[in-house]
From TrEMBL:
Recorded GO CC terms: plasma membrane
An example molecular function term from Gene Ontology annotations: xenobiotic transmembrane transporter activity
Membrane topology: Multi-pass membrane protein
The organism of origin for this protein: Pseudoprevotella muciniphila
Protein name per Swiss-Prot or TrEMBL: Multidrug-efflux transporter
Alphabetical UniProt keywords: Antiport, Cell membrane, Ion transport, Membrane, Transmembrane, Transmembrane helix, Transport
Cellular location(s): Cell membrane
Species lineage: Bacteria, Pseudomonadati, Bacteroidota, Bacteroidia, Bacteroidales
Any GO BP: monoatomic ion transport
Major place of residence: membrane
Transmembrane segments: 21-45, 57-84, 105-123, 143-165, 172-194, 206-239, 339-362, 393-411, 418-435
Amino acid sequence: MTKDGLLKMVRTGKHLTFRQQIMLAVSLSVPAILAQISVIIMQYIDAAMVGSLGANASASIGLVATTTWLFGGLCSGVSAGFSVQVAHRIGAHDEVGARAVLRQGLVSAFIFSLAVAVVGVLISDALPTWLGGSESIHADASAYFMIYAISIPVMQIYFLSAAMLRCSGNMLVPSLLGVGACTLDVIMNAFFIFPTRTITVLGLDIMLPGFGLGVVGAALGTLVAFVISAVAMFGFLALRSKELNLLHEHGNFKPERRTLQRAVKIGAPMMVQHAVMCSAQILTTVIVAPLGTFAIAANSFAITAESLCYMPGYGVSDAATTLVGQSLGAGRPELMRRFAIMTIGLGMVVMALMGLVMYMAAPLMMEVLSPVEQIQVLGIECLRIEAWAEPMFAASIVAYGVFVGAGDTIVPSGMNLASMWAVRLTLAAFLAPIYGLQGVWMAMCAELTFRGLIFLIRLAWCFNHKKEWIHKK
């Protein structure tokens, strides 16, 4: 039976065998996992392009990277506030209501993103100074972040459209368009970062045009790629989606109080979590910055390299959110429980295997990202420390996706915050002066292991005590 047929069985209350449940969980997870891996490969190429410009160029982007995550996380929180409601409505066979939530979400999210973009542009000039970066990388870091801030409304539409499609059960299209966005990013960066040059292929000299804008070119290339991809993602959602096609009927785009209240209840804790956790990551950057330009660049590249391991976990988490959300909307708590356990187990297995790959391939990964030997050595040591945390990191990522699907985000968000601030930052501040950048990554490894453990404990408690999950709509 097809994925759509299995999802229909979930919504209509029909019995699914254990094999069918596994098939459905895997069929939703695999496209997202493959897309995430493809995205990371493209990000590797992207990072290698900037890395070829030297340590200062790499450090200028690495300095503001955590702040870009902060702003991107706010947009993701808004998207979740509306997309989870869509999953519940579709699970309850209320597709008209799902499209109503979509229309209201589009207007609300776009207005929010415009406000965030204005804040980003206003702080872009002072941000490198606040983060403690050296004067040599200030101009590039500031320009990169300002262009990123300008792109936020476009990114918001992209994120919201992708989240809506995933929560409707369509993992394939957002996955394919995500790969397309990263491919476009690499192509655009090739033109914007480097000057016009001649390369030799099979003995033939080929001239490649380019603007030679360096770090600024990397930001512009990403902006152009996101504009094209956002148009494609929203176009499919609004015109081709079986469940959410806006051509089905005319509707009001004015946000309703009840929908906004529900979106705030789901999305606000996630946004606060993203803001506070990214603030903690920014503080980590402040801890790393005094260790020097090589440490800043190595930290940034190691984070990019590590994403090869944890981004597949986010793919499984997306599947968990969809399955839990639709099962709950259909009033099937036992099925929700089984999907939660299946997806968490799948995520832990996948990320354990990826952690092993990362440990073995760390030298090759860092060599691809940077030609600078000092950066490579630091990055290899950091990756091999982090590899040990990947299975429990998976537990926290996928369990959080389960909570999001249930619309229960307040306590899990608080758990993420407490773990980051009480464990990671405290340990990092203590270990960095002793062990340097490696000490920061030791703290990260310990904290992610602790976080996975408390998420598993919390989920087990909810299965036994949180009866209101059964009645959520």
